[in-house]
Specification:
336 residues, mainly beta, 19-stranded mixed beta sheet
């Protein structure tokens, strides 16, 4: 094995656009495993974690394993213990454009990232994922309200490799030509399991067991191309300027598809399709006036055109129940 240890050990890979700072590095030659470890500051007792910089992001964890294939390309990254991904604090980091996102992820147990061949990311232990721009997995609307998702486990599958990018790093300019990239996580499907909380733009969803969301992107007719591809941007509801009240929903499981339309100015609008809430469904809406308040209970809810498409939402139960300001409606199926 090859080992380096000190108060500040620096590893740089220009090919994969990575700079890592740690207290101990050990490379197991036969296993092709690179082991990165932090330390504890003796004077304060505070942890001094591993910091890995890539493109516009920084990954922090106490212990990191990077497994290489026979071509010396990383195919698996494992972070053991608590950690997070956040925007890079390097002064030389690549500047974000308006279409980029500010991605944040935090976990208490582990992160596992695999290339199989598409990138697959699994986070475990009090996981929180959020972004605050309208052009990536979890997006904001024009009002600037972001989306946050938390759960016991969050898995993002089908994250594809981005195009080669140049970045100014600690060691100078570098061009990433291959390998894994945690700075731009763009899944085709996201699954959150256990005690899921979804918040966005005055909407909060509480899902006991499992949430599954699939993402597709479509260019508008006015865009430069009519090509359709898979990408990760979304907002929880269409950018509606209607009722500005607050909505809470509760259920056991939820599933939805998100279609994003991008115009020639790279502005995105999200269309939620085929939304299903299943098991002990409850909705509580508080409007700007008492007359617009309502609540609903049932076994399942279907919203073919998204949760804000009035007239295309069906509530099922035995019976389902909707309470409005002035009346109550019951039945096996209620169309809203």
């Amino acid at each position: 094995s090859i080992q380096a240890e000190g108060s500040k050990v620096i590893f740089t890979s220009r090919e994969q656009n990575v700079t890592a700072i740690m207290s101990r590095l050990k490379y197991h030659i036969e296993e092709r495993v690179m082991e990165l470890s932090g330390s504890v500051v003796a004077a304060t007792g505070r942890p001094k974690p591993v910091q890995i910089y890539q493109s516009t992001s920084m990954l922090t964890a106490s212990h990191v394993l990077a497994v290489h294939d026979k071509d010396n390309q990383i195919h698996t990254i494992q972070c053991i213990g608590p950690g997070q991904i956040e925007p890079s604090d390097l002064p030389s980091a690549e500047r974000r454009s308006e279409s980029d996102v500010t991605f944040f992820a935090k976990w208490s147990e582990s992160l596992l990232m695999r290339q199989v061949p598409e990138q697959k990311v699994t986070l475990k232990g009090t996981v929180v994922v959020s972004q605050s721009n309208a052009t990536d997995m979890i997006a904001t609307d024009d009002a600037g309200a972001g989306m946050s998702l938390s759960g016991d486990v969050i898995e993002m599958t089908g994250t594809t490799a981005k195009a080669p990018a140049r970045i100014a790093s600690v060691g100078g300019d570098a061009l990433q030509t291959s390998g894994m990239d945690f700075s731009r996580i763009k899944p085709k499907e996201l699954t959150a399991i256990g005690n899921v909380l979804l918040t966005h733009n005055r909407v909060s969803g509480h899902i006991n067991e499992k949430l599954t969301v699939t993402f597709t992107e479509q260019l508008s007719p006015n865009a430069a191309s009519d090509k359709t591809k898979t990408i990760s941007q979304s907002s929880i509801l269409n950018d509606s300027q209607g009722d500005q009240g607050e909505t809470n929903f509760f259920c056991d499981t939820a599933k939805a598809s998100v279609n994003l339309v991008q115009n020639a100015q790279q502005k995105q609008s999200a269309e939620w399709k085929d939304v299903w809430l299943v098991g002990k469904v409850q909705i509580e809406h508080t409007g700007l006036t008492k007359d617009s308040d309502f609540s609903a209970k049932g076994n399942a809810l279907s919203a073919k055109s998204g949760l804000d498409a009035i007239g295309d939402v069906s509530l099922f139960g035995d019976p389902a129940e909707v309470r409005l300001a002035s009346r109550r409606v019951e039945g096996p199926r209620i169309d809203l």
